[in-house]
Design brief:
Number of domains: 1
Radius of gyration: 15 Å
CATH topology: 2,3-Dihydroxybiphenyl 1,2-Dioxygenase, domain 1
Number of strands: 6
Distance between the termini: 18 Å
Oligomer: single chain
Shape: globular
Order of helices and strands: HEEEHEEE
Length: about 110
């Protein structure tokens, strides 16, 4: 049976993004060797959306207070978008040190 999930964030500056996830997002981690950090994630969920393009996947982190999260990112001088009301939740995107964007949202939907 399935015992977990492993998500990958590709980055042109993985060391900086790993430091950000470790130091700013404060996710627990292990060092798999040579500074290759593997981060623990909180409980996760997966949804299947209709698409004409198979093989496309998205990754979001979930928080319980988007305003508090956004304020925390501002204190760390992290580029963070305005809050967008998507109906299903309140969404922001942050820019990782490597230049990639990461979505974080406060859900309005039921959580499994």
């Amino acid at each position: 049976m399935i015992t977990g999930a492993h998500s990958i964030i590709y980055s042109s500056n993985p060391e900086a993004d790993r430091a950000f996830i470790r130091d700013v997002l404060e996710l627990d981690h292990v060092d798999a060797g040579d500074g290759w950090l593997i981060f623990a994630l909180p409980p996760a969920e997966v949804a299947v959306h209709p698409s004409t393009n198979d093989g496309v996947h998205e990754f979001y982190l979930i928080c319980d207070d988007i305003a508090a999260f956004r304020s925390r990112m501002e204190r760390h001088a992290v580029d963070c978008s305005q809050v967008h009301d998507e109906g299903w939740g309140l969404l922001v995107h942050i820019v990782l040190p490597g230049g990639g964007k990461l979505g974080i949202y406060q859900p309005r939907h039921q959580r499994p």
